[in-house]
Design a protein that fits this description.
Blueprint: E1 4-7, E2 10-13, E3 18-24, E4 33-39, E5 46-52, E6 57-59, E7 67-72, E8 77-82, E9 91-98, E10 105-107, E11 111-116
Parallel strand pairs: 2-11
Antiparallel strand pairs: 1-3, 3-8, 4-5, 4-9, 5-6, 7-8, 9-10, 9-11
Length: 117
């Protein structure tokens, strides 16, 4: 099991930047994959970025080149650096962890990101 706590959300203008953090309750060294989903009002939750235990990354097409996911195993934390934010990036961002191929996803409580014009 692992508990996840997100932080770093807030209100930012278009073109601005935010860095989200996801702190895990235990070592993330062996966690299969971690990443971020987001959910905008009235929309389904969508995968934004993933980083594996081997530090391979994958991104939703609309955030490629603007967002960067990273992990710090020493701090048991995953980050999402978000640059050049757009109105459509407004959503609640949820950190997740997948501890194994057949394991359920663990979720954080979510952090609100609001981009204003």
């Amino acid at each position: 099991q692992v508990q996840l706590v997100e932080s770093g959300g807030g209100l930012v203008q278009t073109g601005g930047s935010l860095r989200l953090s996801c702190a895990a309750s235990r070592s993330i060294f062996s966690i299969n994959a971690m990443g971020w989903y987001r959910q905008a009002p009235g929309k389904q939750r969508e995968l934004v970025a993933t980083i594996t235990s081997g530090s391979s990354t994958n991104y939703k097409d609309s955030v490629k080149g603007r967002f960067a996911i990273s992990r710090d195993n020493a701090k048991n934390t995953v980050y999402l650096q978000m640059n050049s934010l757009k109105l459509e990036d407004t959503a609640v961002y949820y950190c997740y962890a997948r501890t194994g191929a057949l394991a359920p996803l663990y979720w954080g409580q979510g952090t609100q990101v609001t981009v204003s014009s």
